[in-house]
Amino acid sequence: MLTVPNAISVGRLGCVPIFLWLLFKRHDRVGAAWLLAGLGVTDWVDGWIARRFDQVSELGKVLDPTADRVLLVVGIAAIMADGSAPMWVGEAVVARELLVAGTAVTLAALGADRIDVIWAGKAGTFAVMIAFPLFLIGHANISWRRQAMAAAWVWALPGLALAWYSVVRYVPLARNALASGRERSGQASSGPSGRAYRWRLGSAT
C-alpha cells in the first residue's frame, strides 16, 4: 500500500481543491491550466514507476483509475462551468467516464473479475487531460491563446475518438470478466463449505 505510485495518486486527488481555487477564486486560468496539465502527466509517471520498480499493487490498480476519473470529471465540469470549453466536448468526456465507472461498479457487484485498463483508454484520457488545459489557456488574456485553442482541438478530437473506442473494446472484456468471475464463484461454492454456506443463506432468508 505504501508505494510511490500510490502516493502520487493520492497527491493528484489532493490537488483537485487547489485547481478549483485557482480557477474560481483567483480567476487564474493559466495557473489552473498548468496545474491540471501537470496532474495529467503524473498519471503516466506513476504508472511508469510502478512497472519500472515493481511497485504494482492491488490498491494502486483501483486508486490510479479512480484518481484519474475524479480529476477528469471535476476538472472538465469546472472548465465547462467557466465557459472555456465547448459543452459538447465536455459532455462527451463526462458521459464516457460516468458510463465506464457505472459499468465497473455494476460488474463488481455481479462478481466479475477486475478488468485491466487498456492502452486506448489511457491514451484517450491523457489526450483529453492535455486538451482541456489548452482550452482554458485559449480563453486567457495572453498573446498565444489562439495557438493554444488550435492545439486544444488537435488533442481533443483524437482523445475523444480513443476514449470512446476503448468503450467498445471493453464490451468483450466485460463479458469475459463476468463469465470468469461467475465460473470462479461457482467452483468456490461447489465444495462442502460452499454447500453449507448456501444452506445457511437459504435458512436465513
Can you characterise this structure?
This protein has 205 residues and is an all-alpha fold. 83% of the residues lie in helices and 0% in strands. It has a single domain (4-204), classed as Four Helix Bundle (Hemerythrin (Met), subunit A), CATH 1.20.120. It is built from seven helices and no strands.
Task: Quickly describe the structure.
The chain is 83% helix and 0% strand. The protein has 205 residues and is mainly α. The protein has a single domain (4-204), classed as Four Helix Bundle (Hemerythrin (Met), subunit A) (Up-down Bundle), CATH 1.20.120.
SSE order and pairing:
Blueprint: H1 4-25, H2 29-52, H3 58-82, H4 87-109, H5 119-138, H6 145-188, H7 192-204
Helix pairs in contact: 1-2, 1-3, 2-3, 2-5, 3-4, 3-5, 4-6, 5-6
Proportion of helical residues: over 70%
Number of domains: 1
Mean pLDDT comes to 84
* Strand composition percent: under 5%
How far is the N terminus from the C terminus? Answer: 37 Å
Q: Can you tell me the residue ranges where pLDDT is under 50 for at least 5 consecutive residues?
A: 194-205
Strand tally, please? 0
Give, in order, the helices and strands. HHHHHHH
